[in-house]
Amino acid sequence: MADSIPKTTLAPGGRPGFRPAAPHPCEEERLNSLHSLHVLDSDHEKRYDDLTRLVADIFDVPICLVSLVDEDRQWFKAHCGLDARQTGRDLAFCAHALHEERFLVINDARQDERFFDNALVTGPPHVCFYAGAVLRDSSGLPLGTLCLIDHKPRQLDTAQLERLERCALLVENELIQRDALLAERARATLQANIDPITGYSLRRRYLQRMTAWLQKRASQGALQVILVKLQNAERLRKQQGVDFYEGVLQSLSHQLNENFDDEGLLKGRVSHDTLMILLPRDQALHGMRWHRFVEQPWLLHLSANTRPDLLIGAGTFISDDMSGAELVDVVEEELDCASEWAPKDKSVQFADLTDNLNLRLEMNNRFAQALRDNELCIHLQPIVSAGRRSLSGQEVLLRWQDKNRWITPHQMLRIARHAGLDEELDIWVLRRSCALLSHWVSTRAEGTTVLPLSLNVTASRLVGAEYMDVLRRVLRLYRLKGDCLRLDISGVESFIATPEPLVSAMKSLANDGISFCVDRFGPEHDSLRLLSMLPIASVKLHPRWISLLQTDTRQGRLLKAWTAALHALDISAIAVGIEHSRHRQAMVDLGFDQLQGYAFGEPMAPDEDYGKWKARVESSLEPHADKSADT
């Protein structure tokens, strides 16, 4: 009978309900207990699957789940009548059940103010009735539920609820007894803040030890940091299983230990996929020894699909007065950025972080003063029409010169974010750009139209009411209309599941005449559905899409399909990162409408006179492009 239960799938998105569950009062202890069972992301087990089928038959419901509530998701150890293996925690009924003593019963979710607008109610699997019996560990902490789901309203009497509770006790016993010896050992090591896989300190313990470690070596001069990041960790864990993933981490730690066996070193697993070592500079690793990570048999015997992709970063720095937590945050940020530029050898990227680290540590304290003293400036980079090579727009780029060196925009943004000044920086750029536009508009020759300026802003910043209010006030202050600005929105992918706040904010500003462009679209996060909902005029495809043309023969067909899809939505396609003018015709053939990159002009400080500025830019387009082609 159970085999005849129809299966449904989850909706790809939708707006979550108005009231996601609050964290449990003992959330940290509850999560530690759940993780110590080593059950999350484990393979199917017949005894759990048989149990959910039996419970579904007993209560005559289409869906029965063993649901475990993790930090940001609910994961199904067993699922009868539902294909999905997990959902977001903000949508989870079971997250609410954690706060109940025994049960959470929702007779009709469509009438419940917590759930009536939940995507799991309004869309697949169309939850109407829900009954969840709380699953607890041996100490009484809630881990999840054994839950029943129906597509129509239901009620359970007292006898049925007691029967459901007895079924839940069977699941509890299975969970608590699951590999009891391993669970006990993992629980003990977690209490000691030691990672049972690598033997390294976990993040909290690592930060605690780092403070004393840095103080002890403050007089020893420069230190070195080494990081090893498993870039495809999530894919390996999902495709190859938890045991394989943990085996790779264990092999990585063994390789590091062979090279670094001094007890005075500080080793930590600072995140699920990153190992970190701090050591005095005189013990630093030099030369070709890094290639041991590439040449080891544990890497070479693996196929391309199962081989770990490693990002290894190393840098020498002076810690100064930065705390351990601040130092780890800075180092992790620089390592993530290195994935964009570090050279790759086989499956390993090597990045020398020394210059970037020292710049960050030095500039952190200088940035706030530089912003207050207007040491920063704006440059403009031309955007050209793909077919005619004429100026069609200009993007505002941030520049900062300190001690005869230019700080890159990405470095500035990271420094500002670390200092908590990223919002203040956005407003500074907005005011400086509007001041320039106001001057151009008031002094331009009669009949001259000033091209709008493109400003970069994150989607999360845009949905904040404060930024919208500031934007409107600045426009009024400089007596400008909205059509003088185009906002290049980055980070829209984070709104795929809940696009309504972003759509509302953009439509509100569009009523003021402001236009929009989606910046750095794809390739990891691309959604035509989301683009079709946004009031945008153009899309800048991610530079990585263009770079892949050199190595993937299929990339051209993919780009042509994307530009055609954008045109079907009446959206202009912009290719960015174009370094050579000889690529212009290829971009035209692929369907791009506008181009941007060093092949068509470097960012330059704007002139006071708009006519002279525009003439200077347009006259430089062709010669500059020819020079780029020669290069």
TrEMBL record:
UniProt cross-references to SMART domains, sorted A to Z: EAL, GAF, GGDEF
Residues covered by the EAL domain: 360-617
Stored InterPro entries: Cyclic-di-GMP_PDE-like, EAL_dom, EAL_sf, GAF, GAF-like_dom_sf, GGDEF_dom, Nucleotide_cyclase, Rev_trsase/Diguanyl_cyclase
Comp. bias regions, Low complexity: 11-21
Chain segments carrying region Disordered: 1-23
Descriptive protein name: Sensor domain-containing phosphodiesterase
Organism, scientific name: Cobetia amphilecti
